[in-house]
Amino acid sequence: MMKMRTMMKMMKMRTMLSTLLLLLQLHTTAPTTPPNTADLMAELRAMGGGAINNLEDITEAIQVFQQVQDKFTIEKQLLGTSTDPKTLKFWSALQAIRTKENSMIFLRSMQNEGRSVKEYHGSNFGYGIVFYTGFETLIRAVYAATQRPPPLNIIVFGSNLGTEVLYLYQLYGHVAQSIVGVEILTQLSSFAHGNADLHGFPPVLQFHCHDALHTDKALLQNSDLIWIDNQVWDVALNIKMVSMLQQAPLKKHALIVDFASFKQAHIHQNFLQASLFEEVTSNEWRLPTSWAGNNPGAGVRVYQVL
Question: Measured between alpha carbons, how far is 217 from 204 in angstroms, rounded to an integer?
Fold first, then answer.
């Protein structure tokens, strides 16, 4: 009985997270005020098949809406006013992503494609935003704490529209040999590739459309940094990802950044079993995201390959 209650609680929490991620994407960049509750409910029901009707979620999402707007304002002040051509090119590509993700048509289409992937449950295809300023702060702090040289070869698993791939190019493009985004959904990978081409990014940026679990071993073996964008991946998929990494010929001292194991203790333990990885600790690693709200940020864990 207790096990059943625990499972039901976990399913409810996962649904709440997916609901909130969807809510936050309804109107993120263009408007200056949030849409009204009735409009939110109508759009959510259209996307969720009528299953979403929690007004508390709506209220919370509207509160978070303003926080998201504040983060976008900071991004614009930092990047949009730069006189550096490299930064302005990055900002232009990032604006294209922000425009794309600020569309219910895009989100519904993404969800539909996700439902067509038979291997995985639809909950694995939620969507949220990682903000550049917080991302830069986190990555620089990780590399300062570990005293690592800049990464030459990088993989982003779950690269969506190419956001983190572009972030990492902005940070390390001057030395990087390859920054590879791996994304299972065709429309996300295609947009990321086209956006990079349109804005004149070099072949250092690569976008592979396939299941992350089937990543080429030579690519893994060469990587100095592996970023896993697995905030909404279910437990089964995350365990398979950890198992795949444990069996891969990873580079010694490579770093792995992971969302899911921050709150899922058994996923964290799976990383540490067999003594193939050890955790890099520095209090708590936090990353500002669209779903973190007033919290210090979404938690991540950082591991290094032994």
Answer: 19
Give the residue among 90, 242, 92 at the shortest CA–CA distance from 179. Answer: 90
CA atoms 181, 186, 191, 196: torsion sign: positive
Strands 298-305 and 255-258: antiparallel
Q: State the pTM of this model.
A: 0.84
Domain that includes residue 225, residue range: 132-305
pLDDT at 157: 98
Which pLDDT belongs to residue 239? 95
The tokens for 18 are 């997916």
Three-state DSSP at 286 gives strand
- CATH number, domain of 260, equals 3.40.50.150
- Does any domain span residue 110? no
Mean pLDDT of 36-42: 56
Average pLDDT, whole number, for the chain?
83
Name the nearest CA neighbour of 120 among 21, 220, 230, 10. 230
User: Is the sign of the CA dihedral 199, 190, 151, 130 positive or negative?
Assistant: positive
Measured CA to CA, the distance from residue 94 to residue 14 in angstroms comes to 29
136 located within any domain: yes
Residue 258: what residue type? Answer: D
Number of domains in the chain: 1
pLDDT in tens, 73-130: 889 999 999 999 999 999 999 999 999 987 778 888 998 899 999 999 888 888 888 9
Q: Is residue 162 part of a domain?
A: yes
Tokens representing 288 are 């500002």
In a domain, residue 37? The reply is: no
Top mean pLDDT of 15-29, 143-157, 290-304 is at: 143-157
How far apart are the C-alpha atoms of 233 and 62, rounded to whole Å?
A: 25
- Non-local CB neighbours of 97 within 8 Å, separated by 6+ positions: 161, 162, 163, 166, 195
- 63 in Cβ contact with 138 (< 8 Å): no
